Amino acid sequence: MTLILENEKLRIEFDKTSGTIIKLLNKATNWQIIQQPKLAMGIRLLIPIPGFRNNQVKSERQNLSSVEINESKTSITLKWDGITGEKSGPLDISVVQKIRLKGSELEFNTQIENRSPYTIEEGWCPYLGGIHKPGRDKFEAISMSAQGYAFRVPLDKRFPGVGMSQSMVNAGYWGVDYPTAVVSYPTFLSIAPFILLCDNSQGIYIGVHDKHMNAVSFIMELKPGYIDSMDNIPPHTSEIGKKPVGFLLSPVRFPFLKSGESMELAPVVLHFYEGSWHKGVDRYVSWRNSWFKRLPAPKWIDGVDAWLTLHINSPEDCCRYKYKELVSICKEAKEKGVGVLQLIGWAKGGQDSHVPCHDPDPRLGAREEFCEALRKIEKDIGIRVLLFSKFTWADRTTSWFRNKLIKFAVKDPYGDYPVHPGYAYQTISQLSGNTVHNLIPMCHASNEYRDICMEEFEKILHYGTSGTLYDEVMMGFRLFCFDPNHGHKVGDCFIKGSLRLAEQFYKRAKEFNPDFVLAGEGPQDFFCQYYSISYIRSWDPHHIPMQKYMNPEMKIATCITGWNDRNMINQCLMNSYIINYEPYNFKGRLSDFPDTVEYGQKVQSLRRKLWNYVWKGRFLDGLRAEVSCGDSPHWPYTVFENKINKKKAVVIANYKADESIEVSVKIQERSARFNLYVPEEDKVSKTDGKVVIPPRSVVVAVEK
Predict the structure, then answer these.
(1) From CA 13, how far away is CA 20, in angstroms rounded?
(2) String of b and e for 80-94 (b: at least 16 CB within 10 Å)?
(3) DSSP string spanning 449-503?
(4) Nearest to 96 by CA among 71, 66, 120, 73
(5) Is the Cβ–Cβ distance between 85 and 56 less than 8 Å?
(6) Of 203, 358, 493, 536, whose CA is between 20 and 30 Å from 227?
């Protein structure tokens, strides 16, 4: 006999003794998500005890104290009053989990009361075991990365390798028993607290509905392991070697719950959807928009769709350009359609040196020369300047760090500060690691350190520019701080302080200059209340613009570094991205790569012609239209809806280097004819849907 919740959409079954989840069925699609009950899980806790840090509490080895189910079989409350650890034995800890079933969703709420003498570090709630893919389509986990794209973890044909390498996702094989992938929030791999488990036609949104930026790690395991270790192919049977087969997944929280404390973890919502990944993202957006308030951005950012990014100094003392030379560089850029200069390496010591100091570098010119150059660029030439800034780290080589900032450094559980290896520039000595400036993560949850950041930010405001671009606006290097003197809970996620700092920056900027903009390198989604522009790198031909779909109002600038970079510029047109020129890897001037700039200007001109579609229109990614090449779907393309006349524009690219393609385009909800626009011709042609696209080119089909 089992415990069952069921409605017209879903059915979930629990073991009546342990409370583990032994079956989970999406009735709408007939996907039996949990097909291997021998791997049934429910919750798991990590409770270190003296001599045994890895003391785990596994729900499959616990006994329920009580169960309550409502009459409609849509809500169940499971209680474990007293639990048993693998190393500790019985512990005086209570866990109550309430699961609600509503429509196509399950909501898990977990309460923990710690009466033991130990600290509860991890809470795996819920923990789903024995997962099998729904069909033959590719099966993957997707998160939202800081570089604007859908970060994808394959779960079928090639599960992430667990070998002699350890990456941001893969655990080294020496550290785990099974192939294991971890995507942690808030980091560069996950800027929003959800993950999608999906194939091409359906999926599960697994979202932690927590407004407070508490950390969560989405862990994916494959038991018992690969068929073979060369190809990393998971078994597609229920058992192998007489061992049960399946995926396991859990959103793991880190409560660091001390003796005598209790906590209710933020709800976890499982939303079962049919369709593409867009449906899963829509569920996250609907929750976020129920409380999230995007604050007004300066009007001028709406009119700028091309930048120049320029680095003028490095920690190896290149001193590439003097401040006064910036004026001629910007005059040239203005003539080529550039509206913003992102200036990097302008501060003392060059890029990634002396941070978080934001004083001008006297080797590049006097402070007065710096301010005068900025004034001429902004007022006389008409280019807005965003000064590169950095508040995440402190440069360990400086006396400022050694004498003062050290006390605000993030601390690990052992009382030490972590050391980031830093970033290398120019010389082989630095590129080989010999002279790199190590960077120390700073605790933004410290009020005193945020005060220092505000002092440095005040300097930037007074230089008179139109904004700042905060590099590495959040940190993926560490998430928790254990310093007892910073004014936060020991073991808290200090990225919460980064969100408070964003609010402080925004408030002060609006007081000082309402036209001052905050931009950031891949800001966390919650930060986008305050940061109006995201700076990314999208050089992947398979780049999926998830951030633009999730935040269509967000301005996104991507890097153009190639010497005839047509495909990247085409991507900018497709995704409504700012063309951000970076000749010589952002160390040159615009005249250095004329072919790229010439094509960029043509695309800009076309974008201006279709402004209400491809810049001001509603971005739909690939929804509401279909593009095919022969008998196969074609990609890449995107769809925009004009907010005034509601007509669609379909932007279609051909990334192939030397082959033209013929595609067919149609609008899903109605038959349509199209006007065709291309960057390199002024004339407009007409079509009923057939389009020929030359190599490395783009076409815009606008509904007539």
Answers:
(1) 8
(2) beebebeebeebebb
(3) HHHHHHHHHHHHHHTT-SEEEETT-S-SS--EE--TTSSS-TTEETHHHHHHHHH
(4) 66
(5) yes
(6) 203
Distances (CA, A) of 176 to 166, 240, 317, 582: 11, 19, 44, 42
Q: Which two tokens stand for residue 8?
A: 């017209």
d(CA 627, CA 665): 4
- Which residues touch 349 (CB under 8 Å, ≥6 apart)? 313, 315, 357, 361, 395
Q: Is the per-residue pLDDT at 229 higher than 60?
A: yes
Q: pLDDT (tens digit, 9 = 90+) per residue, 137-193?
A: 889 999 999 999 999 988 876 666 544 444 445 677 888 999 899 999 999 999 999
**681 SS3 class:** coil
**Rounded (10°) CA dihedral 623, 629, 630, 631:** -40
Whole-angstrom Cα distance, residue 488 to residue 465?
Answer: 34
Distance CA 704, CA 702 (A): 6
Q: What is the pTM of this model?
A: 0.96
DSSP one-letter string for 76-101: EEEEEEEEEETTTEEEEEEEEEEEEE
Which token pair is 565? Answer: 């970079």
- What pLDDT, on a 0 to 100 scale, did the predictor assign at position 160? 62
CA atoms lying within 13 Å on the CB side of residue 458: 6
Residue 107 token pair: 């909501």
CB within 8 A of 580, min separation 6: which ones? 306, 307, 308, 309, 342, 535, 557, 558, 559, 560
d(CA 511, CA 527): 19
Task: Tell me if the bond preceding 694 is cis, omega within 30° of 0.
Answer: no
Q: Which residues contact 426 (CB under 8 A, 6 or more apart)?
A: 314, 316, 318
- Per-residue pLDDT, averaged over 217-243, amounts to 90
Helix (H) or strand (E) segment spanning residue 534: strand 533-536
End-to-end CA distance of the chain: 62
Q: In what order do the strands lie in the sheet with 690-693?
A: 632-633, 625-629, 661-667, 690-693
Average pLDDT (395-407) is 98
SS3 684: coil
| Closest among 278, 455, 459, 449 to 374, alpha carbons compared | 459
Beta strand extents in 365-420 (DSSP E only): 384-389, 393-395
Residues 6+ apart with CB under 8 A from 654: 660, 661, 693, 694, 695, 696, 697, 698
Helices (H) and strands (E) in the chain, counts: 12, 45
Cα–Cα distance between 703 and 688 in angstroms, integer? 10
Burial of 673 (C-beta count, 10 Å sphere; 0-12/13-18/19+):
exposed
Structural domains of the chain sorted by starting position, each given as residue range(s) with its CATH number in brackets = 2-288 (2.70.98), 299-536 (3.20.20.70), 613-703 (2.60.40)
